[in-house]
Specification:
The protein is mostly helical. Helices cover 75% and strands 0% of the residues. Helix 4 runs antiparallel to helix 10 (194-209), helix 4 packs across helix 12 and helix 12 (227-240) packs antiparallel against helix 14.
Amino acid sequence: MKLAKTRADVLFDCFNLTLIAILIILVLYPLYFVVTASVTNPDVVYSGKLLFVPEQVTWDGYKRLFSEASIWLGFKNSLWYTITGTTINVVLTVMAGYALSRTDLVGRNVFMFLLVFTMFFGGGLIPTYLLVKDLGLLDTTWAMILPNAVSVFNVIIVRTFFQSNVPSEVLESAMIDGCTNLKFFVKIAIPLALPIVAVMVLFYAVGHWNAYFQALIYLKSNAMQPLQIILRNILIMNEGSDVQNLMDGAQDQQKKLELMKYSIIIVSSLPMLILYPFLQRYFVKGALVGSLKG
């Protein structure tokens, strides 16, 4: 029997819906503005007339963007760093989280203490740089991947997931049937952990795609720079040329560069925006599979 809502319940629901709608608008409108500004005449953007509907649509920003060879090179590099780095991150994180979730692991508390210790105490930037240098990783693609191969915070999340969703009784039953540790991990533990694996993929992929600080420190060659560094260089050159462009009367050129800014933001953000809906569906699928097998 469904209870009828009181007036207070209706008012409370209306307040929640209104608040949620306002928050959604505050989050989505800046993204929408960037999308519309990337295809709108810069004069309309500068004048403040662009609110919702783009006027005087132009594709000059995207045309100029895709004509830059450095953009394609940065896109390829970022894609390589993201795919390779995320694969290594997820494999190591899931394996470490599963091992630490096992109560029969000898020295588990010691390993956990050593991992958590690194979250509070670290050598800093200079010792890390010297370590990367001594390992011969400077100016190599591995400098963008190996120094941050595992996140202790994510390992703790995965360990907690295994402890909560993979009962020890399941392991005991599998062992009685002759299942080995490796077979149990691959055939039983991983299928049950599909939701957390999808979460780790999203966390690590976004981190690798947006990474730029490591490239500033470890990479010297322009051929290995990720997309974010190339975006940064374009923005710096653009800002540094503002005064000179105005002095030379090249306002039209400057407007095209500003239009290119919005186009670069869209192109650099698009892969992660495309990835998220697929992982969101995978969350639901993984949760259903995990609940049924559990």
